[in-house]
Amino acid sequence: MIRYSITDRKHVGGLERLQAHIAAQLTQGIEWIQIREGDLPDRELTAFVRSVLSLPNPHGTRFLINSRTDIALLCKSHGLHLPAGSLCPREIRRITPAGFLIGASCHTTEEVHRAEEEGADFAVYGPVFPPLSKASERPPAGLGGLAEACRGVSIPVLALGGITWDNADSCLRCGAAGVAGITMFQ
Predict the structure, then answer these.
(1) Phi then psi for 106, rounded to 5 degrees?
(2) By the 8 A CB rule, do 68 and 41 touch?
(3) Cβ neighbours of residue 61 under 8 Å, at least 6 residues apart?
(4) Torsion sign (Cα): 165, 169, 115, 136
(5) Alpha carbon distance 143, 80 (integer Å)
(6) What is the rounded distance in angstroms from the CA atom of residue 105 to the CA atom of residue 103?
(7) What's phi and psi for 89, nearest 5 deg?
């Protein structure tokens, strides 16, 4: 199971506490961490990304930067996460190094298929359940929607939205390769 932690400094009480939180996740072996602090000024975001990339990383956790190809490349992160409706991953891949991960947020089965066709390495699909950390205007897709989104694609699909340790196994049984979230990794 891929565990995909998404950062939210406001949820944990600021950047300093977020860095400590990430350091703890690195000791736990969380597979992927998405830095989603895009409202920070460029210099502050760059400094933060560099600081977390320099933390001891005994399990080889991979860091992905949300939306910011420039900062992901500048800081030599492991990848990039694209919101729904972003540039085609194949276009971005023209300027990224080998092994650079590109993930895409998807809210429909069609978006998951498009993400795969356009060269994404994985899709984050949701919301599966009502989100715990923020309001969503999208109705939850439920386990049936997740199962449908996982069928017919070869890229990993990660379940997002209202995921807890109590319902994570049901997501995996639907075909999800892992789970993503903010609050479940607190």
Answers:
(1) -135, 145
(2) no
(3) 25, 26, 29, 30, 31, 32, 33
(4) negative
(5) 27
(6) 7
(7) -55, -35
The residue count of the chain comes to: 186
Q: Which amino acid is at 7?
A: T
Cα 104 from Cα 45, distance rounded (Å): 21
- Yes or no: say if 140 and 128 are a contact pair by the CB < 8 Å rule: yes
Residue type, 174: C
Cα of 110 vs its chain's centroid, Å: 19
* pLDDT, tens digit, 9 for 90 and up, residues 62-113: 999 999 999 999 999 999 999 988 999 999 999 999 999 999 999 999 999 9
Give yes or no for a contact between 179 and 150, defined as CB atoms under 8 angstroms apart: no
Q: What is the C-alpha separation between 66 and 105, in angstroms, rounded?
A: 10
Write the DSSP string, 48-88: HHHHHHTS--TT-PEEEEES-HHHHHHTT-SEEEE-TT---
